[in-house]
Amino acid sequence: MNFFYNRSNEFFLHIILCDNLHIATNLEIDENLIKEALELGGYPTKDAVVEEALRDYVQRRKQLKILELFGTIEYDDDYDYKQQRRSG
Predict the structure, then answer these.
(1) What's the whole-model pTM score?
(2) Cα angle 64, 67, 72; round to 5
(3) Three-point CA angle 50, 57, 15, nearest 5°
């Protein structure tokens, strides 16, 4: 049987050809919240709303991790970045 048409290998072929791994998931989400997000964001589908919410969540968590670094990184008070640019 040809690898590309073997049903059992369809998932692996998809992974090879697609940059994103798609996972079918059943979630119980407040329907009013989804409707409000659809209207406010102008999203075409519930999937698009959930995906954007997850992107926002991940971005926010990364920002919070960066904020945790403030005050923990030592730097040289005499460092002159403009001088470094001039000297090439």
Answers:
(1) 0.57
(2) 135
(3) 60
33 with 41: CB under 8 angstroms? Answer: no
How far apart, in whole angstroms, are the C-alpha atoms of residue 53 and residue 36? 13
Q: What does the pLDDT look like over 18-33, one tens digit per residue?
A: 666 677 788 899 999 9
- Backbone phi and psi for residue 87, each to the nearest 5 degrees, phi listed first: -80, -10
| Angle, vertex CA 24, rays to CA 21 and CA 26, nearest 5 | 145
Please, which residues have CB within 8 angstroms of residue 34's CB and are 6 or more apart in sequence?
Answer: 46, 49
**DSSP class of 42:** T
